[in-house]
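Hi V.,

Quick status before I head out on leave. The structure for the redesign project is tokenized and pasted below; the design run finished overnight.
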């Protein structure tokens, strides 16, 4: 399907879904390469980001927030726990729920990873002006809401 109201067929240079997937794949591959020294992947990084930003979250809340299957969240938290970056604390009101919390080592790793991610994002978005970058982020927020 081409542009709305036209009979154009999509192309690899005009299909928004393909271009978004391609840009996302490029960003994830670059971030994964940047995070290799920390033995982290982009999904680990987003979990650390969410826990850093929101404080203690249950695994269910993390899955909903990040759009990740619950079983994948468990594996990610297991990886981060084994690395000493997060811990599972009891929920103050629900004995069955554990809250995922950053450890001091997790905070340090997240700070360093954030610096790498910022450099990677600067490289990825280098073709855009600062105004275009802001517009892109605004548009992506609207799409992902």
């Amino acid at each position: 399907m081409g542009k709305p109201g036209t009979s154009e067929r999509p192309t690899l240079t005009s299909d928004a879904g393909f271009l978004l997937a391609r840009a996302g794949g490029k960003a994830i591959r670059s971030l994964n390469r940047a995070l290799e020294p920390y033995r982290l992947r982009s999904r680990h990084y987003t979990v650390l980001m969410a826990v850093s930003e929101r404080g203690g979250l249950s695994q269910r809340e993390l899955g909903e927030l990040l759009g990740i299957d619950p079983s994948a969240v468990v594996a990610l938290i297991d990886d981060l726990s084994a690395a000493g970056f997060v811990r599972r604390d009891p929920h103050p009101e629900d004995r069955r729920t554990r809250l995922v919390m950053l450890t001091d080592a997790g905070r340090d790793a997240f700070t360093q990873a954030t610096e790498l991610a910022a450099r990677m994002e600067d490289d990825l978005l280098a073709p855009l002006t600062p105004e275009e970058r802001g517009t892109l982020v605004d548009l992506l927020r609207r799409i992902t809401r």
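Above is the designed sequence. The helical segments are 16-35, 42-54, 59-66, 70-82, 104-124, 130-144.

G. will cover questions while I'm gone.

Best,
W.
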